[in-house]
Amino acid sequence: MSTEEKSATPRSLAEALRVRDDVSLAALLRSRPDLITPVPTDLTQLATRAGTRASVVRALERLDRFALQTAEALAVAADPAPYDELLRLMAGDPGAAADPVVTAALPRSLAVLREQALVWGADDRLRLVRTARELLSPSPQHPSPTGLGPTVREATAGMSPGRIQELLAAVGLPSTHDSVSAVSALATLFTDRPRMAELLAGLPQESREVLARLVWGPPYGQVTHDPAAHLRALLDRGLLLPTAPGTVVLPREVALHLRDGRAHRTPEPVPPPVEAAAAHRPRVVDATAAGQALAALATVEELLKEWDEGGPAVLRAGGLSVRDLKRTAVALDVTEPVAAFWVELAYGAGLIASDGEADERYAATPAYDEWRELATAERWARLAEAWLTATRTPGVVGGRDAKDRTLSALGPNLDRSAAPEVRHRVLALLAGLPEGASPTEESVLARLRWERPLRGPQREQREQREPREEDLRSRLARWTLSEAELLGVTGRGALAAPGRALIGAPEPLRPAAETGEPEGPGDKLPVHHRALPSPIPPTPAEQAAATAAAARVLAPLLPEPLDHVLLQADLTAVAPGPLERPLADLLGVLADVESKGGATVYRFTPGSVRRALDAGRTAADLHAVLARHSRTPVPQPLTYLIDDVARRHGRLRVGSASAYVRCDDDATLDEILADKRAAGLGLRRLAPTVLAAQADPSALLEGLRAIGFAPAAESAAGDVLIARADARRTPPRTPPEPVPEGPPVPDDTLLTAAIRAVRAGDLASTAPRKPGPGTGEGGGPAAGELPRTGAAETLATMQAAVLTGEALWIGYVNAEGAASQRVVAPVRVEGGFVTAYDHTADEVRTYPLHRITGVAELADDAL
């Protein structure tokens, strides 16, 4: 048989892969990366791995709905099946009204199955890989997604020969001498449309109604020991066949006739469009998203400010307690699910982590200080990238794990490997809409379900609308839409310009009326026909470039930081926009945030002023800074407040002896001792200006402040201790690594090297050999076996090959014990080693002779 004939009619999947070019093999390995981990030794091993159950299940789960419907049709077709039969199963019999869209889309779907090595063979002999056929074929335990039952041959396998002959007589067929030909005659009748139409026309109406209930599945039904007359008419003619006592099935051939030859009730060759819910001006969308981006940065900074001096304790099992999450939600003025999102976002960006101490608590990391020094747009881009690529999923917080334990924020078991892909895909679908258009949530979910349909029982439940928990991908999509809005990736539900850059989307679609240009042919295409970003998430390098681009796009949309505030007589300051970092840090210590929004309102209180004094500021510093940064005169009440708090600040000194209070004014100490609210501190006088306390210094400081004093902490040397809000930091921490969903998609370099190695290994395993010692019958060992020769014969053959320049086939076992077979051309043999050009590796290598299991000469036309 010639090479052309072999390539036209491959006898196995391995042969079909062998005739593929490198581009086709690269597409296979890119779509099914599990096949390359580890790199197979040859194409036979690659084909074997492509047919394993785990790999096939993974490949089927990543098919779109129409490609999966095509595979399901092949599972109920003949093996092998011609293309015409597949077309009938998908579009209907030629006599019926075939769907032209299905007819046009089928070649593309078949090409996808071929590319992923789920289908092989020429168009006249299409074969679905055996494992996929087993997974998709109908059986009583696992009904087919098509709703079809077994064939007549399968359903009558246990039927007596006499009963089969009775069926032939009932439908008007002549009797035969054996059951095989009888079953074949019955199946031929059921596939003959005119004769089947006559047979069905002679049935009672009740019988036809029974068939109509079973035709689209499930094909199994229950009958009594003495069935009714209309059921008896079906059983007598073989239109229903018994499979077990009390159970009957509609044969596949009968169902296909009633369906006009279609395997599916509703083929779905075209993805459902993502529908626009509303249209907004792009400038409004971008401005809204920019405002949300600023609010997101402010929220993260407020969270970290709360945890600057040490955040909540870490649970023994890891994560935040429910009480601490509620406190965080109150502090941020958000709901608990939203608080969980912000906490997880900061954690995923590496801004917070556990401090690792004995009393383990969450705190800011050194990376937080570096992040705060970045430009505003770059800080947002870091958060957006962390969100887009993270597998940790805040939406599952509060749910239950497999052991019925509550899932806590920052705790374990929050990783969902599909999250990055779903987030990227949802944003890509939004990018396919015209600029400024926001989608309907249900249309996005419907599109995702088409792209990754549920299979088996889950799919049947969804189609029958049975109550069940929403699938994970749909929940991830809902969370993506809400989280993108919180983060400023979208504005008013539409993808904003920075979000578009974040996923590397092309230029937005704009109506011709807005651009002033004539309409092109692409402007009238429905959304599902337009070019969308790649469904494959980008590589880390591509994502880093997209993140930098998103920061550049966002920067012009953000207002310039302000260096001033508006001081008011009611002890408040209004910041009409984002403030420069030094001024924002000062106000964050000197005042409390009263309200946020387009403008931030700060309120000055005695406690906030004391906080600034504790941080090392003096009254003169505060007066000077406020006068320099206020566009309005400094109100007199604020001046009095600062002076009054500063005058009392530090008159009392609290230190650690156990704890003591020191004051130069003994009358002040008398006042403290006389105050009943200080009774709990256990104070007693040691000297006219010193009081001892039973409480520790921090509790003593808080207690004295609670009753109206302004004490300051002092060191053992008597110096005032300055309390800085940013004093607590964890050791350097790395952000949590995403948990990938299976092996990563290989890059071009790995693909090139892997294909080269596989082809070289295939050459070594398939090259024809000369018969001789160490070879099996027919000129070589059994499949998969290495050649076996003695040490002396191996050495002699190697030396002879050096002189003749011939190539040899060798078996080799490396230092780790892994066996392989190679084609080599020996160059030199000395010192127990052979130096040879390795055709498998395409380089010169040196092999120890004692690790070569045997050699064999190649046929003259092998290379």
Automatic annotation (TrEMBL):
<feature type="compositionally biased region" description="Gly residues">
    <location>
        <begin position="773"/>
        <end position="782"/>
    </location>
</feature>
<feature type="domain" description="WYL">
    <location>
        <begin position="793"/>
        <end position="855"/>
    </location>
</feature>
<keyword id="KW-0238">DNA-binding</keyword>
<dbReference type="Pfam" id="PF13625">
    <property type="entry name" value="Helicase_C_3"/>
</dbReference>
<dbReference type="InterPro" id="IPR032830">
    <property type="entry name" value="XPB/Ssl2_N"/>
</dbReference>
<feature type="domain" description="Helicase XPB/Ssl2 N-terminal">
    <location>
        <begin position="565"/>
        <end position="687"/>
    </location>
</feature>
<feature type="region of interest" description="Disordered">
    <location>
        <begin position="762"/>
        <end position="784"/>
    </location>
</feature>
<feature type="region of interest" description="Disordered">
    <location>
        <begin position="728"/>
        <end position="748"/>
    </location>
</feature>
<dbReference type="InterPro" id="IPR026881">
    <property type="entry name" value="WYL_dom"/>
</dbReference>
<dbReference type="Pfam" id="PF13280">
    <property type="entry name" value="WYL"/>
</dbReference>
<feature type="compositionally biased region" description="Pro residues">
    <location>
        <begin position="732"/>
        <end position="746"/>
    </location>
</feature>
<protein>
    <submittedName>
        <fullName>DNA-binding protein</fullName>
    </submittedName>
</protein>
<feature type="region of interest" description="Disordered">
    <location>
        <begin position="506"/>
        <end position="535"/>
    </location>
</feature>
<feature type="region of interest" description="Disordered">
    <location>
        <begin position="136"/>
        <end position="156"/>
    </location>
</feature>
<dbReference type="GO" id="GO:0003677">
    <property type="term" value="F:DNA binding"/>
</dbReference>
